[in-house]
Amino acid sequence: MKARLFCTTIITVLFTIFCQAQTATISGKVGLGVSNLSSTAEEFEIVLKNQITNDSVVIPLTTVDYTFNNVPLGGSYIIYVNTAKNNEDYLNGVSTLDLVMITRHILGVDQFNNPYKSLAADVSEDGRVSVLDLVMLRSLILGITTALNHSWIVRLQEDITKEKIIINNLSGDLVNQNFVLIKKGDINGNPK
Fold first, then answer.
1. How many domains does the chain fold into?
2. Nearest 5°: CA angle at 130, between 125 and 131?
3. Is residue 169 left, alpha or beta, with left meaning phi > 0 and alpha meaning psi from -120 to 50?
4. Each residue's pLDDT expressed in tens, for the chain with a length of 192 residues
5. Is residue 190 part of a domain?
6. CA–CA gap between residue 99 and residue 185 (Å, rounded)
7. Measured at the alpha carbon of residue 190, what is the angle toward residues 101 and 145, in degrees to the nearest 5?
8. 15 in a domain, yes or no?
9. What are phi and psi for residue 19, nearest 5 degrees?
């Protein structure tokens, strides 16, 4: 009888699949159009809202920078700054100096040097700086009226005609998604 020699080899294949949801980071800054971000910043919130589920992530602004981490790819989102908590202090930063600056702009003596000042001066929100804005602001300062349409408005830094960032089908990280807060009536930039 012949002896048979054989060898048995057992091969174990380890195959690991990491199932992680693909995510992205969205970041930017929130600043003031005509001054520096101050202690009022913490009264604002930046919101990331899922357009499909309406779920929201809210970050209180404690610095000028914001970051949303682990945002699922493929989703559709809206990012905006919520000013509701701080939209009633109409006189904050507004003074007769602002009236003088608006008057000088209207007369062509000293034109505004950035579009944010024009947005701040347009308290009537009719798209232009006019005597109507002066009358409304003067009435507010004298206590004849107590409110404007808005105390604060928000615009995108890259397009001052837009208030929100709309993202359809997020495909990767987004940086420099910057917002500008504008205090209505405050031209010289001194909100508290």
1. 1
2. 115
3. left
4. 555 665 555 554 444 444 456 999 999 998 877 655 554 455 789 999 999 999 999 999 888 899 999 999 999 999 999 987 777 778 888 999 999 999 999 999 999 988 999 999 999 999 999 999 999 999 999 999 888 888 889 999 999 999 999 999 999 999 999 999 898 999 988 776
5. no
6. 8
7. 70
8. no
9. -100, 90
Inter-residue contact 30 to 178 (CB < 8 Å): yes
Helix (H, G, I), strand (E, B) or coil at 70: strand
* Environment class of 164 (CB within 10 Å of its CB; exposed 0-12, middle 13-18, buried 19+): middle
117 is in which domain, residue-wise? Answer: 23-183
Domain with 99 in it: what CATH number? 1.10.1330.10
- For residue 104, is it within any domain? yes
CA distances from 16 to 12, 20, 79 (A): 13, 12, 37
Q: Any idea which residue has 């939209």 for tokens?
A: 87
The amino acid at 105: H
Distance CA 71, CA 50 (A): 10
Measured distance CA(102)–CA(120) in Å, rounded: 10
What residue type is 192 in one-letter code? Answer: K
AA identity, residue 34: V
Query: Is 45 part of any domain?
Result: yes
3-state secondary structure 42-68: HHCEEEEEECCCCCEEEEECCCCEEEE
